[in-house]
Amino acid sequence: MALPRANWKGHIRFGEVTCPVALFTATSSSERISFNILNRKTGNRVRREFVDSVSGDVVEHDAQVKGYETSNGRYVVLEPDEIASAVPDSDKTLAITAFIPCDEIDDVYFDKPYYLAPQETGEDAFALLRDGMKEAQVAAVASTVLFRRLRTLLIRPHGDGLIGTTLNFDYEVRPADVAFDDMANIKIDKEMLDLASHIIGTKKGAYDPSKFDDRYEEALAELVKAKVEGKPFKKIAAPKASKPSDLLQALRDSAGAAQKKSTNRKSANSNTTRKTAANSGKSKSAGSSRRKAG
């Protein structure tokens, strides 16, 4: 497999120790289905253009400039070199400012993950940092300029390397009460809570990302296939939300179904064990007969 192109190269520094590292994007959307915008009448692809909102004239790329609106219809123009000069100086160094417990940062601050790998001559110092953090069970907080922005990263051991997750700034994260303030103060009945706890207990497991499929992408692929082949496509009905009056019965039904499934699974496992034991007994009996015959 070809080595992916690094998104950023620089150094990571902790104390007086520095080692060269390369940063790679950990996630990719390139495998997703993508669409083109077409002219419905002609079937041709359309081209996006920037148009002057007053004159209606097309504005070519070289004539476009960024602006910040100070009042209705009034803008301050910002030239590219002015914006570049305002970006903090970068010496291409991920400077670690603190080591913290791995679970100290609320994941609402997590932005995008990147793999960090050592470059040539930096393997020893890199391994020292990685194994030192594993031993101490800590993560590192560092900052540098990435993609023309000053970014804070949470760096953690990940397999043979490190993973650096860019963090949202405090002003970028909305307070939770924006979403939850209007929620009613509801007291859940004990029977309902017990049933919910039972259902949760039957669903306990471990997270395996390979077992989760992108059903949206699969549905799009099936839709595209049906359109190409000229076949009808069956629409999937949206699930109905449980009404408050039906919630208790829905919980009882769910608990019963979960109990039945668990019983069937135990029965199947028991049958498998008995069959295995029976087959083992037959093998031993056959072996004994052959020995006697010999």
TrEMBL record:
<keyword id="KW-0227">DNA damage</keyword>
<feature type="compositionally biased region" description="Polar residues">
    <location>
        <begin position="265"/>
        <end position="279"/>
    </location>
</feature>
<comment type="function">
    <text>With LigD forms a non-homologous end joining (NHEJ) DNA repair enzyme, which repairs dsDNA breaks with reduced fidelity. Binds linear dsDNA with 5'- and 3'- overhangs but not closed circular dsDNA nor ssDNA. Recruits and stimulates the ligase activity of LigD.</text>
</comment>
<keyword id="KW-0238">DNA-binding</keyword>
<dbReference type="GO" id="GO:0003690">
    <property type="term" value="F:double-stranded DNA binding"/>
</dbReference>
<dbReference type="InterPro" id="IPR016194">
    <property type="entry name" value="SPOC-like_C_dom_sf"/>
</dbReference>
<dbReference type="Pfam" id="PF02735">
    <property type="entry name" value="Ku"/>
</dbReference>
<keyword id="KW-0234">DNA repair</keyword>
<dbReference type="GO" id="GO:0006303">
    <property type="term" value="P:double-strand break repair via nonhomologous end joining"/>
</dbReference>
<protein>
    <recommendedName>
        <fullName>Non-homologous end joining protein Ku</fullName>
    </recommendedName>
</protein>
<feature type="domain" description="Ku">
    <location>
        <begin position="56"/>
        <end position="184"/>
    </location>
</feature>
<dbReference type="GO" id="GO:0006310">
    <property type="term" value="P:DNA recombination"/>
</dbReference>
<comment type="similarity">
    <text>Belongs to the prokaryotic Ku family.</text>
</comment>
<dbReference type="InterPro" id="IPR009187">
    <property type="entry name" value="Prok_Ku"/>
</dbReference>
<comment type="subunit">
    <text>Homodimer. Interacts with LigD.</text>
</comment>
<feature type="region of interest" description="Disordered">
    <location>
        <begin position="252"/>
        <end position="294"/>
    </location>
</feature>
<keyword id="KW-0233">DNA recombination</keyword>
<dbReference type="InterPro" id="IPR006164">
    <property type="entry name" value="DNA_bd_Ku70/Ku80"/>
</dbReference>
